[in-house]
């Protein structure tokens, strides 16, 4: 009997949260854009009744299905776990954030469905080529592409531009709070799109930080944020610095298969840099094969930029705009060298 009443209470709480945010979801008076509203009939048809053959992935929040709308548009549809208040909160937060942004390097929200009382659904553009994590770390599958240096630089630059937009162009500014390689999607042209805004936060117009419990992913979490509970744009910069290391090294942020002192990629790289062994111990050997002297120097510069993003003191880290500009300069050097035959 107690279990029955607890389920009823949770159901009422979930419905209350969905109802409280429905006006925001369905209207555009938030200076952003409204989400298109889909019916559950449309979504059920698009996913073949949420067929397991359409399942793209699953996590603590719920599941993501591939769907094809009536007009042929291919989509990715996120469904929260039934009765999971935290997962539903994250989905509603994602709508709130994505209704306010529009950038080529941010995944596009096409709409939502709020017909089911306990399961809001989000409908996104379908990004067909998996995640950056897949391509860097799932090396035993022929499905994933071995990314060359030029591709990695372009992915880094596009991601940096998307994050700089959140920090500098969005009103109010947005802190992503969970930047990692598995949240960077790649399309058929290997163009990058930042995804998963479930943990993101809007900053008040004059605020320098948001005070909140530390959340994020092990290996990517800003130590300053973890200690002080102050989320800033520099928290995203730190997390992005870890992604830059992944691009340079093809190593995971945390890997318990590495030696004890090297489990954490940031610690490993900083130690190698201190020993003057960045190029020998850290850089992906595949990148160095056939690389020109100038390209090797750009890898060294890229590594230094990454470490700058990872400074323990957030005030010493560059802004995302500066990071994007620095990567653009590195890309320009590589392009000029190629044009001149170096």
TrEMBL record:
Record's subcellular location: Membrane
Key words, A-Z: ATP-binding, Glycoprotein, Kinase, Membrane, Nucleotide-binding, Serine/threonine-protein kinase, Signal, Transferase, Transmembrane, Transmembrane helix
GO cellular component: plasma membrane
Gene3D superfamilies, per the entry: Phosphorylase Kinase, domain 1 (3.30.200.20), Transferase(Phosphotransferase) domain 1 (1.10.510.10)
InterPro entries (UniProt xref): Kinase-like_dom_sf, Prot_kinase_dom, Protein_kinase_ATP_BS, Ser/Thr_kinase_AS
UniProt membrane topology term: Single-pass membrane protein
Binding site for ATP: 78
Domain (Protein kinase): residue spans on this chain: 50-330
Entries under Pfam families matching the protein: Pkinase (PF00069)
SUPFAM superfamilies hit by this protein: Protein kinase-like (PK-like)
Predominant cellular place of this UniProt entry's protein: membrane
GO molecular function, one term: ATP binding
Superkingdom of source: Eukaryota
Family statement: Belongs to the protein kinase superfamily.
Designated name of the protein: Protein kinase domain-containing protein
Lineage, highest ranks first: Eukaryota, Viridiplantae, Streptophyta, Embryophyta, Tracheophyta
